[in-house]
Amino acid sequence: MTSTTTHPSYDQLKDLPAYAEQPVPIAFEDNNGHLNVRHYLGIGSEGLDESLVDLGIPVDWPIKAGHACFAAEHHVTYLRELRTGDRMSVRVRLLGRSERAAHALVYILDDTHQQVSAVFEEIFLHIDLSDRRTAPWPADVAEAIDARVAEHEKLPFEAVTSGSMALR
Fold first, then answer.
1. What is the DSSP letter of 66?
2. Which Gene3D superfamilies does its entry note (predicted)?
3. pLDDT of residue 5
4. Is 10-153 in CATH node 3.30.70.20?
């Protein structure tokens, strides 16, 4: 994976599963009349969380199993503005996994205008909440992440990363 300036297009991403589908609410608008910067990360994180449910990481994982995912790093690129009322959704591409972390690209799509609004790259960690430290992924979750990464490696477009982060 190399860093370039060409991100996948809306048409390349639209067939991936959609998460966090919603209109931009007026409460998220800033003085510039578009989605405030602080909400991009929240919406993208919501979509990433939803995408992990079928990999064995449910929303109530902390309560049910004493495990959690914590974000460690982000790199956000804003491509096109989202305005109040625009329909938006999130698409996720998993890039890899180490013993205790995973690497993803999260795309926020403007479904109203059929364009990519933002992309953020994230490293997230598996946390054992009993001591709030990183821990190896449970075997079933690791296997599911690996399968999704293998599936996403076959996508017909490049995984464009920032080049500023990597699994360790």
1. S
2. Hotdog Thioesterase
3. 61
4. no
CA distance 6 to 150: 22
Separation of alpha carbons 25 and 87, rounded Å: 10
Q: Please enumerate in sequence order all residues whose Cβ is within 8 A of that of 15, keeping only pairs 6 or more positions apart, or say none.
A: none
Taking the C-alpha atoms of residue 99 and residue 162, their distance in angstroms, rounded to an integer, is 22
Where the chain has pLDDT below 70, the residues are 1-5
Going from the C-alpha of 162 to that of each of 6, 47, 123, the distances in angstroms are 11, 20, 12
The 3 state secondary structure assigned to 70-138 is: EEEEEEEEECCCCCCCCEEEEEEEEEEECCCEEEEEEEEEECCCCEEEEEEEEEEEEEECCCCEECCCC
Instruction: Decide: helix, strand or coil at residue 67.
Output: strand
Give the C-alpha separation, 68 to 52, whole Å. 11
The tokens for 99 are 């013993």
Write down the domain spans for the chain.
10-153
101-110 and 67-78 beta bridge pairing: unpaired
